[in-house]
Amino acid sequence: MLAFDREGGLWLTHSTPEFPNAPSRPYAGIGGCSASGDCSAQHGQLRFGQSFMCVSLGLDVLDGLASAIKTAAPVIASWRLISGIEMPGIRALVNAWESRAVRVVRKVSWRSFASVDGQGFLYTVKSPTPHGQATYLYEEVLEPLLGDSLLVQSWSNVESECSRDGTAVTMTVAEMAFPEGTSWRAGFSDHSKWAVTGHSDIAMVCMADLNRDGLDPEWSEGPDRPQSLRGGGATCLQHPTLWAAMRGAIASTQPCVFASSEA
């Protein structure tokens, strides 16, 4: 979600389905909570873990980010542009959606930007692709770009992937545990999508909008088409304190399957 006025705006990336709802409908809250507090667990918003990251941005940064988002060919649920504010990147994003003029080509884009307080971020996004041209966000895009292995939490129970020579490692989070005693098995009990690098000298945290696929998923082109064929990406920041907290909460990971038979 991108929101702004004449002074600046924000970029909210998250994993919750159907949030926010269209402005034409009364706000029902996450999971469909009414004003009286009654809730219905639509699509598991209330039952599953979700991730949110909100960044305050200047208008020029926000507009540049919109240009990168266009690579993902996103479905725009709703939009409204304020007259008198020139935002060519956002306008192009809206026009591409309304005209359905986005050509599906295999493409990866990335953009560095800073929040209004100066925190650096890296947004990496991949395009949707036809069947047989899968692009794996975590293994093929983020790991080479960040220069480190990843521990990934997403909506799946996919095994970790390791090469036999140790050069490529993508670990899937299996269990989370917190100091106050709360713990749970990840996978299908947690709908959040995030990753941390394996080493503290890199200390990168990424919030994503795609789940992690396993090796060569044989799924259809319909509503259940694999994440490796969909458009989407991740917003990453280097933050040792946040990295240590999230890395420390990972209690265990899924066992490895080997992506290479080389010794």
Automatic annotation (TrEMBL):
Statement: the UniProt record of this protein carries the keyword Hydrolase: yes
Alphabetized UniProt keyword annotations: Hydrolase
InterPro entries documented for this protein: DNase_II
Family in the record: Belongs to the DNase II family.
Name of the featured protein: G7902 protein
Source species: Coccomyxa viridis
Taxon lineage: Eukaryota, Viridiplantae, Chlorophyta, core chlorophytes, Trebouxiophyceae
